[in-house]
Each structure stands twice: as structure tokens, then as C-alpha cells.
Amino acid sequence: MPNQIRKPRNVALSGRSGAGKTAIAEYLARRHGYRHLRSGALCRRICLDLFGVDSKEMLNAVTDAMRSIRSDVWISAALRPGEGLEPIAFDSMRFATDYQRLKLAGFALWRVEARLDVRVGRLGTRGQEFDPAVDDRAAPEVELDHHEFDYVIENDGRDLGELFAAADSAFEATASVFPAPSRFASEVG
Q1: What Å distances lie between residue 15 and 12, 20, 94, 95, CA to CA?
Q2: Measured distance CA(186)–CA(159) in Å, rounded
Q3: Which CATH number characterizes residue 32's domain?
Q4: Edge-to-edge order in the sheet of strand 88-93
Q5: CB-based burial label for 65 (10 Å; 0-12, 13-18, 19+)
Q6: Beta strand pairing status for 11-14 and 88-93?
Q7: CA–CA separation, 109 vs 170, rounded Å?
Q8: 66 lies in a domain?
Q9: Cα–Cα distance, 115 to 154 (Å, whole number)
Q10: Structural domain count of the chain
Q11: Which domain holds residue 30?
Q12: pLDDT in tens, 137-173
């Protein structure tokens, strides 16, 4: 509409491992100028540096240990003030505490969903160990399953073009809309 300005909102992505959260966050960074934040990368680096492995079992154990010290440790680390003013795409919303904090901060909350067989295939392709009987039941995988989201993206075997088109639809659907400055106000100011 000519009397409105659409402004991107910060986006928090939730979904199980291999659903496509990181691919969407990277796309938002390339296409729409978002700053991609990821707490999962920090946890993976800690696991590799300290234990030499980044299996899902190890990631979950380290996540649980860190959260026993401070429940919002990962989100606090990821959301430390950055350099720019660009919108944020946070690809690691996993827990109810994350959900509440990001919702209160005005983030658009997106859920990315994919079937288990599709996710296991993607994880295997990137070399990540994943035992569905154990790992797909861990708290980081299931804690937000019944929460409400502003937008849900189905990613069951989509090619990247289809996934990115779905991300663009979510982007448009969840952008903030503001009245455009009036011509008079811009001439006076």
C-alpha cells in the first residue's frame, strides 16, 4: 500500500534438527540483509574443542549442562549486542525460555517442519550422527512442538528454490507495517 512502509522484523526459527532452519537464516542474510545468529554453532564448537565430537548425544549433554548453570545461556550468548543495526535471523530457538524471551522482544516466531526420514537424510549428508530413538526425543528437539508460531514452513524434501520462496512468504507475512511519513511532515522536518 502506498501509505505504508514494511519493515523486516527480527526472526527466530524453531524446528527439529535437519528441518532447514540454518538454510533459511542464511538465505535471509543473503537476500534480505539479516544478521544470522546461531547458538548451535557455538555449542558444536565447544563440543569439538573439548571432546573431539559433535554428535547429537554430545550436543544435548553439553546443552543440558550449560542450561543447568543458566537456563538462557545459549540465547544470551547469541544475542549479545552486535555491530550493525540489521534485523536478526536467529536459527536456534529450542526451549520455552528462548521462545518467551524472543516473543517478548518482538521477534517473528517461525517454525520449520520436515519429516523424520528427510531430516535424518540431511543430517547424514552433513556427517552428523543422529540416533532418532534417542536424539529425536531430547528436550531441544521436542520442547517447542506444541507452541504457537507466527508462521510455519513445511520443508519435506523441497528444493532450495521452493524453501526460499516459502521463506519469502513468511518474510512478507510477518513484516511490521508502519504508516508512511506524510509528505507534509517530510517537507517540514
Answers
A1: 10, 8, 8, 11
A2: 44
A3: 3.40.50.300
A4: 35-37, 88-93, 11-14, 108-113, 151-154
A5: exposed
A6: parallel
A7: 10
A8: no
A9: 9
A10: 1
A11: 4-38+87-188
A12: 988 899 999 999 999 999 987 789 999 999 999 999 9
Contacts 24+ apart (CB under 8 A), 180-189: 180/2, 180/3, 180/4, 180/5
- The pLDDT tens digits of the residues spanning 66-83 come to 889 988 887 787 777 766
DSSP assignment of 87-110 equals -EEEEEE-SHHHHHHHHHTT-EEE
**DSSP codes joined into one string, 65-95:** HHHHH-TTHHHHHHTS--S--S-EEEEEE-S
- What percentage of the chain exceeds 70 in pLDDT? 90
- Give the pLDDT band (50/70/90) at residue 182: low
The three grid cell numbers given for residue 181, joined into one nine-digit string: 511519513
Residue whose C-alpha is closest to residue 112's, from 159, 134, 145: 145
Name residue 110's beta-bridge partners.
Answer: 13, 151
Q: Is 43 within the bounds of a domain? A: no
